[in-house]
Amino acid sequence: MSATTPAQAEQSAPKHMRAPVPVQTRSERFTSTEVTDFPEVTGREAMWKYTPVARLADLLTGELDGSPYVYDATTASGVSTEWVGREDARIGTAGTPEDRASANAWTHFQQALLVRIAGAEHKEVTLTRSALGGAARAAHTVVEVAEGANATLILQNSGSAHLAENVEFLLGAGADLTVVSVQEWDDDALHVAAHFAELAEGARLKHVAITLGGGVVRLNPSAHLAGARSDAELLGAYFADATQHLEQQVYVHHDGPETRSRVTYKGALQGEGARTVWIGDVLIGPKAVGTDSYEQNRNLVLTDGARADSVPNLEIETGDIVGAGHASATGRFDDEQLFYLQSRGITEEEARRLVVRGFLFEIVQRIGSPALQDRLQAAIEAELTTSVAAAS
């Protein structure tokens, strides 16, 4: 009988039981649609070490209600919605779960909500969920954008929720999609989401994540720039209050030639126990010649007792690129800005509000939907009105 080498023994074992091997590149992470393929989450794992996993226990390990839910959708020419079965060929096209929460949602959803978008004329559609309730739930959404289609899709979330979900965006050649995911959940809501986008040749995606509510919100968007000259802009703005945990783990994979990406996330924190996490991964693959990429994260800490973690990562596997870079900064109010405003007769309280307002509005004003921008600006104003920093 021939001896089995340690390497052969490891490869013959189930994937989740193999000895941990350092992941050499971001694209080599283990993926699976089955929750049982992932080990139990301890909070020591690289992708979970910033997350309050105890608060998410029912979404990580428990049974989830994957039945269809109530939603509202505005109408527009060329846009349709319907529930489709798990066997639909489009499901799984844009990505596969990399963590247990995403896999748990994938394991338990019964039907996926399919949103079809067609037609070159720009249209705006709002999909609203406000009655999910407090039971642990799984959801799956597929957004199919036809070749040459142009649209803005607003995903509006509010009310109570204990939700784990996956959302896939399939952009055909030359398609142009702006998607705005707005999280205005109740204070006790739990929301863990993975957004996967697949871009064909010449497709353009603007993905905007605005998070103002919820107890724990972890939204991880990823964009696979598979087609030549595809373009992705990932933007985010978030405002965390006391005990609130808001987390974003962003991944951009440049795969096709002459692709471009820009990632800009900005957040403000106030109150004891307020916590934000931003992790940005950019991978420029060996075929992605001519890539132009840049990512940045900025955080403004308004009070003592708040904490922001920011981790940018950049991997380059080809030397033939236009440019690539990343930046991260976390700080308090700029004393010079406050002094300048106060020297013009503005009170310190109002000066602080103006600084935060301008800091976050830089993201909001890039959405491109005037009505939504106005509403989000009003929501941020409401946060600032109750800000501990404004009253100090």
Automatic annotation (TrEMBL):
Annotated segments matching region Disordered: 1-27
The SUF system FeS cluster assembly SufBD core domain, residue ranges: 135-359
Biased composition (Polar residues): 1-11
A Pfam family of this chain: SUFBD_core
Top-level taxonomic group: Bacteria
Family to which the UniProt record says this protein belongs: Belongs to the iron-sulfur cluster assembly SufBD family.
Protein name from the UniProt record: Fe-S cluster assembly protein SufD
Lineage: Bacteria, Bacillati, Actinomycetota, Actinomycetes, Micrococcales
Gene, per the UniProt record: sufD
